[in-house]
UniProtKB/TrEMBL annotation:
Keyword Acyltransferase (UniProt): yes
Protein name: N-acetyltransferase domain-containing protein
Keyword Acyltransferase in annotation: yes
Pfam (any one): Acetyltransf_1
Species of origin: Emticicia aquatica
Domain annotation N-acetyltransferase: ranges: 1-145
UniProt KW keywords: Acyltransferase, Transferase
Entry-linked Gene3D superfamilies: 3.40.630.30
Length: 145
């Protein structure tokens, strides 16, 4: 398995997983829109995407969005999307992708990564905690559309 930072030439492979990820969260399949969305993020330098491949088959991906911490006055990243194809789960793919994302922010000298997950996503929480992520206990998140 290798993990690459997605460039324009990898969009088709990344879009397949991105579309599956969206379907996992209840959205309708739309591979054309998925590819367009990812293409726009890359073209506008709005995200960084890492893709796990084995024999040129996509296994999993993560998408990071840059942001800032005003309090520490440092750049940080939001790990917004993480998905591993069902056939590739429990094989270390998610861990490898997360470690790649961590190394990316560390090499840039940035503050770190933030992610959120649902309370029922116990398997993901175990993975995060097993590789050193800490659950934020003293912050609440609010949403308004």
């Amino acid at each position: 398995m290798k993990i690459i930072q997605v460039q324009k030439e990898h969009l088709d492979l990344a879009a397949i997983l991105f579309d599956a990820y969206r379907q996992y969260y209840g959205q309708k399949a739309d591979l054309v829109a998925a590819k367009r969305f990812l293409s726009e993020r890359l073209l506008l330098n709005e995200s960084v995407i890492f893709l796990a491949l084995e024999d040129d088959k996509p296994l999993g991906f993560t998408q990071l969005y840059p942001t800032f911490s005003s309090v520490s006055m440092e750049r940080q990243w939001v790990l917004n999307d993480l998905f591993v194809d069902e056939k590739a789960r429990n094989k270390g793919v998610g861990k490898a992708i997360l470690e790649t994302a961590q190394n990316f922010t560390r090499q840039l000298g940035h503050k770190g990564l933030l992610l959120e997950t649902t309370p029922e996503n116990i398997k993901a929480q175990k993975l995060y905690e097993n590789i050193g992520w800490k659950r934020e206990e003293n912050h609440y998140f609010y949403w308004k559309s």
